[in-house]
# Entry
Amino acid sequence: MQFKLSLVAASLIATLTLTGCNDDSSSTTTQPEIEKPSPETGTPTPDNSAITIKAIDGYLANAEICIDRNNNNACDTDEKLTVKTDKNGEAKISKADAKFNIIVSAKASVTSDSDKSGKLGNDFQYIVSASDNAENKTISVTPFTTMAHTKNITLEALASELNLPLNTIAGDYVAQKENDENAQKVHAIARSITTTLPTTIAAINADKLVKTTADISKILDDKINNKEDLNNINIEFDEKGQAVSKEIYTTASYFAVDEEMWAVSLNKAYATEEGIDYAKVISANTLEMTRYNTGKTSTGEFTINGDAIVSDGEADTFIYMTHDVSLAVPQNDGDLILWSKKDLRDKEAVYAETFANKTFFYIADDSTSHNPDPMMAKMHFNADKVTIEEADESMELSWAIQGENLFIDFPEGDNDMNFKIIAKDRNLLITEDSTVKNMFGMFVANEALAKDLLTKWKASSN
# Structure
């Protein structure tokens, strides 16, 4: 889609038939044991002095590791190791490297978190101070070690300030949950903190982060008093800075008995034909789906295989999953399917703060057939102007929130952009054109995630 010709971004809906899938969501890097030459033979033998690091929010798989040898709190190119964390968040490093600060970098569309299915939608970094590494055989790198490092205090001091047990925040609180009643809360704090982190260590405001952590802790205390299960809760902050409690999911829990959801394709041709579907898991491995535009209801059997839901031998793979916005790719079907735990017929509240002074990558399907032609444009919003870049074209236009819609004013002869938001989370906003039926699109906050979604959508039609 060329914006100079027309800005009706043909975004769009699809068939909800559960079809084909395969992606790399289950792949993790197996960590080899560090070896060193035998002094007698020169033959590599296991290095028993190797140190295991463990990256924990949930366990972060396929995260990068840097040894901060120059102590600048940054992952410089020559400090990045080739080894990455495995599915347990673990990687082995040399004892010599363990004497420096250790940085773990989680990457959108690459790193996964054991707490939920799909890949992460944002970049962030954890760090652990060199002084904490001395003689440990396993070093945890977590939001808590990150707070302690950036605030330049010990973990003991941080534990005291947050009124949390030291042995829990300093250890593997994910594994401790079975035997430690404090670990469930600490784990919920950790994954909630992570949603507030900037992309780099250097950008962290330590005092603000500790205060936010204390606020999250109080919210979770209320949930504990109400006897809520913290294992599936994430505390996030919306564009107004208000705390919002959201459930997190693995694919298995997303499709557990009695779970409800709504789904629609982002391909216009499929969207026009099929409309929005309401689905409910009516019994173990049985999904009932009702198509709103026809009222027709059908049931089907399914199984879960990692990040995929499989039916009739074919599967849709979830590449991203949150409460409000989940995206699944059917293999060889030219489709990208939006799933949500909210009714997609109801639009979301949108504020100036949703867009102002932010950069998004807008993706939509520019085709009018079942074969997708997804496009991407970069949009940078300031207070009242938006700069749109697509390919080699660039233009600056006026924008505003009109009612609860995003309005972008295009020159006479082109279609204005008048979008409502039907689903959103902190990484993605799903749009529907208010003037053209079944035209959907998405604003993606992270460029790497946007490019990955574009690539997977295009690959699904090959």
Remarks:
- The mean pLDDT is 87.
- The first strand starts at residue 35 and ends at 37.
